[in-house]
Predict the structure.
Amino acid sequence: MAERSLPKYTRGRRNTHRSSSSSTFADSSLHFQSSRKFQSNNPTNHTTRSSEPNSNPNDNNITNWDTADDQANHPTLVGTCPFMCPVEERVQRERLRDLAVFERLHGNPRKSSPTLAVKKFCRTISAKHDQASNVRPLSVLEDTLNYLSNLWDSTEHPFEVVHDFIFDRTRSIRQDLSMQNIVGGQVIQLYERMVKFHVISHHKLRRCCGNSNISSMHHLNMEQLTKAVTSLYNLYEANRTSHSIYENEAEFRSFYVLLHLGSDSQPMGESISLWFRRVPSLVMKSKEMCFARRVLRYFRLGNYKHFICTTEAEASYLQYCIIEPYICEVQALAVCCVNYGGYKLNPYPLEDLSRLLMMKESDVESFCSGCGLQIYTDEIGKKFLPTKQTNFSHPKKVFQNYSLLQSERLERAAAECSKLL
Amino acid sequence: MQSEKYSQYVDIMVPLFRALQNYRLGNLVDSYQAFEKSANAFIQEFRNWDSAWALDALHVVAYEIRVLAERADRELGAIGKNPEKLKGAGSFLMKVFGVLAGKGPKRVGALYVTCQLFKIYFKLGTVHLCRSVIRSIETARIFDFEEFPIRDKVTYMYYTGRLEVFNENFPAADHKLSYALTHCNSRSEANIRMILKYLIPVKLSIGMIPKNSLLEKYNLTEYSNIVLALKRGDLRLLRHALREHEDRFLRSGVYLVLEKLELQVYQRLVKKIYIIQKQKDPNKAHQIKLEVIVKALKWLEMDMDVDEVECIMSILIYKNLVKGYFAHKSKVAVLSKQDPFPKLNGKPVGS
């Protein structure tokens, strides 16, 4: 799903906005337009906002294409708001007591300050939101993201609360970027950091329990992840000057492959085969992409052993965050294959299974019972999985209580990486 | 009086002459713009006619606007401008499709326009736009698909078959591409080659192997080593062939399909070991030591240990490419005495 907002707001504003100051942007928007023909989603659905959940790409109104002239000729907004939150919005939210916990001055729910309040994501854009004084220029947006990054490390509040706040405020950053049609190379890093936020959240939210909203938060996060990452890919394309690739491009591109591991999942509306057709060869041959492609091959072949080993040995922390949900699936496949194809008179030692699945032996035991399989213990206390059991079922419960892969390397990588948002 | 009656033809003819003039001068963008104007005026009239008498003319317009748009885009690209004429031609043809797709005698011309649209969407990389057109063609009860002209049916099946390949829906891809192949004019070798380029990977993935002579006749030798790897059970050769033609396979969208053949290559390798053992001692042939498979893979310079081979065997058994079981303790795979290597029989692996 593409970041619909990017080209769209400028269209929606066409008649309301009057400041014309943007011959500098016209050129970049033109480039952007040219890259859009490769976008996977519907380029025409003007009325859908970026906030809409995955809208059906079938509902195309194909006759409605904008021409490049449209894009280039109408003025582009340049924001002038010097604060993380426009004064007007801050005052209004103070009055309405609509302040997030991070925005309250000394904990006062009616009082905030320019250094605490951050502009909220806005679902409906009216003429008021179009005013330059309500939109933040790039430098302020950068500062805002830096500020949010610092909050990310705070341990004062539960993760869901921190996530919820950053989720909304980074979305607002992207909204301001797209309203001003800022699509140059300078925002690539900004987008990479926001994608990174969503990737790590994708991982961490799975581990939060005790809050009934988690699964919907997880879903919404995935939605914004795919949108932000699609925008990022468009930025890479639009700003490519020669046959080089951006520093982190290979890793961020590899996310697309990893997001599509699931057999039927097409979270971004396009099969990998189609996507591969237009990924630059340099990216395809990069170390990060080769890793992702190997993991994809192992997953598709069902080669559980290599899938688990390779992930453990080579995944970056961010790649691991995306792969993790599939690890459980592959581990279940492994148990299923061992149970199905193993010799009936040779029960499979849990010790070996634990090495194969890279799980603690005690976890293997609960995992197997989660799959509906019996375990038996011999006279000296060794545990086995008897094979050819008939009631295997895929584990329904998500196993959140333990790390799926026992891996010191990945734990170290996580510790190093989660700070760097 | 007279001039009023024919005034609408002015809107068709004048821009058309302008398009021709610009074309002659080599101004392709200007030519395209004038042609689109003329085409719009033409479709306006066409819409009002009850009969389909002008269908041939409409098809010429549909074809020319696409080809002209492609050339205009090349001109735009060369001067650093945004090439967006083909996209424009796409929206025009969508309009034409709307005029034809309803009930009535004009519908027979809809498939031709659909195929022109496919060509545009494939070229632009916006193949998801094909879906709504396909739905409109395939769900219409009022018109039998078989009534469309054969030429259009072949093109349609070729493109929709390719879409099925991208989605790895092999039975459907097989059906559509085979239809295209059997109905394609046997003298148009270039078209047969285009169909085979996609049909061969599909057939391979459902266990059907083409003759070498076919690959040579249609110059599809990029598949030769893959076929050989399947016949020999040579994993190294499969990997090598994929690497050698990686860019080509990735661009055409068959890479992942071919990569998945690995399981069939493993199956073949185990089968070869089984056959060799059978020649030595028929009574013990169905017991294969995992160590033997490790050794065979080592000859192919593929380093795998016994645990990895056990994993491969368990997958082959689970996906019904091998019948039997593996003994973890003694590191042996025991094959069923009956039909130890089931054939795919036109079905994809694991289905």
About this structure: Strands of chain A lie at 348-349, 376-377, 383-385. Chain A is about 50% helix and 0% strand. Residues 109 and 223 of chain A are 30 Å apart (CA to CA).
